């Protein structure tokens, strides 16, 4: 007799055959049920007979065209359904690998390489259950594909809303290596830059950031940007900064991107002048109805970058 005081132990002895019984009952054929179970038909038939003998009841009527349930078989099926199928479905879900939600962030190469990647490990650590994907382009499109959740892009500054904010304004200075500055100690006037090698960041079309022409024109509207000096052009801001650090000329340095280089002395100000534009690095949620994960990552980035920039402006760092 089954031990009624130990239902789990009793059920464990019959659980495999009970699952096969439900499969046979649903299929109405031993052959089809055996195929789905990965057993031979004689083997499945023997297990059903063993189950009937153990329970002391006939469960199946074996007929030429298949099987039907006896009254005892119907009662057993009613007792197991829907509990056993639900348990099987739940176990199948448990076995499936958990697919993590991924938040996709797109930005330009300069911001990614010089500003975002240093804090990227902290961002991932703050959201261990999320996948954080970073897409980079030299000049991201204003309206990317639907896979992008967050955009960080140099754009005209706009008032902060629930879905976008300015991380920091575009403030630009002329920078060079300490060695290059030592070779040009009397560099005080912007007009003097025209005779020096200027390192330029190029882009297709009209870039939405300061170029040497626009920066010098704003600093000294009466002076032309071009002169007798060499122009070194790169399409990667990392290369622009590396060229400046190696003493190849003067580059434009964006506050918020090169601050660590200034702090370590790898770069120094070639001129005391800084120019600010109405543009800035705007952080924007691309969906009108972002999920909780996207909004949480947005809030983290906004807090991290706006706080650090305000600390820099106030002299705290």
TrEMBL record:
Pfam families: HTH_1 (PF00126), LysR_substrate (PF03466). SUPFAM superfamilies: Periplasmic binding protein-like II, Winged helix' DNA-binding domain. This is DNA-binding transcriptional regulator, LysR family. InterPro entries: LysR-type_TF_proteobact-type, LysR_HTH_N, LysR_subst-bd, WH-like_DNA-bd_sf, WH_DNA-bd_sf. PANTHER family: GLYCINE CLEAVAGE SYSTEM TRANSCRIPTIONAL ACTIVATOR, HTH-TYPE TRANSCRIPTIONAL REGULATOR. GO terms for molecular function: DNA-binding transcription factor activity; sequence-specific DNA binding. Residues 17-70 form the HTH lysR-type domain. GO terms for biological process: DNA-templated transcription. Keywords: DNA-binding, Transcription, Transcription regulation. The keyword DNA-binding applies. Belongs to the LysR transcriptional regulatory family. The lineage of its organism: Bacteria, Pseudomonadati, Pseudomonadota, Alphaproteobacteria, Rhodobacterales.
């Amino acid at each position: 007799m089954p031990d009624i005081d130990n239902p789990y132990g009793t059920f464990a002895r019959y659980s495999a055959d009970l699952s096969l019984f439900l499969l046979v009952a649903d299929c109405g054929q031993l052959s089809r049920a055996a195929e789905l179970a990965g057993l031979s038909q004689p083997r499945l038939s023997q297990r059903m007979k063993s189950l009937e003998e153990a329970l002391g009841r006939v469960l199946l009527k074996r007929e030429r065209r298949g099987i039907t349930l006896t009254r005892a078989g119907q009662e057993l099926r009613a007792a197991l359904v829907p509990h056993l199928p639900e348990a099987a479905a739940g176990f199948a879900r448990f076995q499936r690998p958990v697919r993590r939600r991924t938040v996709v962030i797109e930005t330009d190469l300069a911001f990614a390489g010089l500003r975002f990647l240093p804090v990227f490990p902290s961002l991932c650590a703050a959201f261990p259950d999320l996948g954080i994907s970073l897409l980079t382009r030299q000049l991201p499109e204003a309206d990317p594909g639907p896979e992008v959740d967050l955009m960080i892009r140099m754009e005209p500054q706009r008032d902060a809303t629930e879905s976008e904010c300015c991380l920091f304004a575009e403030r630009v200075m002329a920078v060079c290596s300490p060695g290059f500055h030592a070779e040009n100690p009397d560099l005080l006037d912007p007009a003097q830059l025209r005779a020096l090698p200027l390192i330029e960041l190029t882009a297709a079309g009209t870039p939405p950031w300061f170029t040497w022409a626009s920066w010098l024109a704003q600093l000294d509207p009466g002076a032309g940007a071009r002169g007798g000096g060499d122009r070194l052009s790169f399409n990667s801001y990392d290369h622009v900064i590396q060229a400046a650090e190696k003493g190849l000329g003067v580059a434009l340095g964006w506050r918020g991107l090169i601050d660590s280089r200034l702090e370590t002395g790898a770069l120094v100000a070639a001129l005391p002048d800084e120019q600010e534009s109405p543009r800035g690095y705007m952080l924007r949620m691309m969906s009108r109805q972002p999920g909780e994960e996207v909004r949480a990552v947005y809030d983290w980035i906004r807090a991290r970058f706006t706080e650090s920039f305000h600390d820099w402006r106030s002299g705290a760092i």
